């Protein structure tokens, strides 16, 4: 197949004030990394989530990098992070000179397995001088970085209990769960600081961009400082530490503001997509959908099925091939990071659940603007593939 797929995996829905706000950028000459939409994007996101502070960044990866720095993660630290996730959070851990300790997924939620984290603290860590260290290596545990994958939040309460007991900050990567909830609390408000990405295929997009969200005023101030080249005196151009150019442009923020105005509608659309898939092909033998915990309201960023090769009659990759022939774009999950050549040698707690999900899962077309007829076509193609 050449060219764009007939039914893509996930494309933006620009159905609100996007064009108007972009035009406003051009008309006011505010197109670069200062401008009213940047402030408005931050303020509106903070209000939407009920957070005290929000700091816009040039990408989600930049947000993760700076969140790790302001949360006090130091070179040589270990950071507990989900193994089954897009690679950006693990890379950001390396950027600050720390190393990831990968944690397997929980089979019930596909999120970081909190029991493994608990066991790790109980059996392999001890307190030394007010810090929690890995007994064997003597290395400090710098943070826990749960990644809410595919729209579903992590089981935050027991994780936070552990983090508090052991004096370790929690950095939530809520990129994929933005708009979702945990026991009524908004995703991105579950840990001490959260990171968001507004890349093109996320639930809401700013073209490219990210945000740091926290209630901690000192961390927010330092994040703003570090993302803007650590300027101590703008008039004399004096910088008091090594900063970064991680600023978002007014053009990106304009798009972000327009998308954020429609966040509720976008999440509702994603939930409708997930519900329709379950109605149409939830009963197909050998297919099962990603579960939603009783305490969770998933944002359903990507509707994802598990394919049982025996019961379904073919494996997830063969099904992907059959759907591709019909112009339907799907995607397996990410290679678990404890297997990634990029992170060779990193330690892992468990790993088999993530590996199993990786081999069996397939994310289905999940654009917020997908037509009902397209959802029907995807399910017909799945059923047809099974029947050969
Ligand atoms: C997309 C994504 C990122 C990376 O964001 P960028 O804006 O592309 O740098 C980080 N974390 C998660 C969970 C993501 O899905």
Can you tell me about this structure?
This protein is α/β, with parallel strands linked by helices and about 400 residues long. It has helices spanning about 20-30, 35-50, 60-70, 90-95, 115-125, 155-165, 215-225, 250-260, 265-280, 310, 315-325, 350-360, 370-385; strands at about 55, 80, 100-105, 125-130, 130-135, 140-145, 170-175, 180, 185, 195, 210-215, 230-235, 240, 285-290, 295, 305, 345-350, 360-365. The protein is built from 13 helices and 18 strands. A four-stranded mixed beta sheet has the order 1-11-10-7, with helices on both faces. A four-stranded parallel beta sheet has the order 6-2-3-17. Strand 8 (about 180) and strand 9 (about 185) form a beta hairpin. The protein is globular. The two termini are about 20 Å apart. The model has no long low-confidence stretch (mean pLDDT about 95). Pyridoxal-5'-phosphate binds near residues 61, 85, 173 and 175.
Can you describe this structure in just a few lines?
The protein has 388 residues and is an alpha/beta fold.
């Amino acid at each position: 197949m050449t060219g764009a797929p007939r039914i893509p995996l996930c494309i933006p829905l620009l159905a609100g004030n996007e064009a108007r706000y972009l035009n406003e950028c051009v008309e006011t000459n505010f197109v670069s990394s200062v401008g009213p939409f940047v402030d408005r994007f931050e303020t509106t996101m903070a209000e939407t989530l009920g957070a005290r502070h929000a700091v816009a960044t040039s990408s989600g990866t930049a947000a993760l990098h700076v969140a790790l720095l302001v949360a006090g993660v130091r070179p040589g630290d270990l950071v507990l992070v989900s193994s089954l996730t897009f690679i950006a959070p693990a890379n950001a851990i390396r950027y600050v000179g720390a190393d990831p300790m990968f944690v397997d997924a929980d089979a019930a939620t596909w999120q970081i397995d909190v029991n493994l984290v608990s066991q790790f603290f109980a059996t392999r860590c001890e307190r030394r001088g007010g810090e929690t260290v890995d007994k064997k290596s003597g290395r400090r545990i710098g943070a826990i970085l749960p990644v809410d994958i595919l729209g579903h939040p992590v089981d935050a309460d027991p994780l936070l209990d552990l983090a508090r007991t052991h004096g370790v900050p929690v950095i939530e990567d809520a990129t994929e769960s933005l708009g979702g909830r945990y026991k009524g609390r908004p995703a991105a408000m579950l840990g001490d600081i959260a990171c968001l990405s507004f890349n093109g295929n996320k639930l809401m997009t700013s073209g490219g961009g990210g945000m740091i969200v926290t209630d901690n005023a000192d961390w927010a101030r330092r994040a703003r400082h570090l993302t803007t080249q650590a300027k101590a005196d703008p008039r004399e151009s004096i910088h008091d530490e090594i900063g970064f150019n991680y600023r978002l442009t007014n053009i990106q923020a304009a798009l972000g503001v327009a998308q954020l105005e429609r966040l509720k509608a976008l999440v509702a659309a994603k939930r409708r997509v997930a519900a329709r898939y379950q109605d149409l092909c939830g009963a197909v033998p050998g297919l099962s959908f990603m579960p939603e915990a009783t305490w969770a309201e998933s944002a359903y960023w990507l509707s994802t099925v598990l394919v049982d090769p025996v019961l379904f009659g073919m494996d997830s990759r063969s099904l992907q091939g059959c759907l591709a022939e019909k112009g339907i774009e799907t995607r397996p999950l990410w290679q678990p990071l404890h297997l990634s050549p990029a992170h060779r040698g990193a330690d892992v707690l468990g790993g088999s659940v993530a590996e199993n999900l990786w081999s069996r899962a397939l994310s289905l077309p999940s654009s917020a603007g997908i037509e009902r007829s397209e959802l029907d076509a995807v399910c017909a193609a799945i059923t047809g593939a099974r029947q050969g």
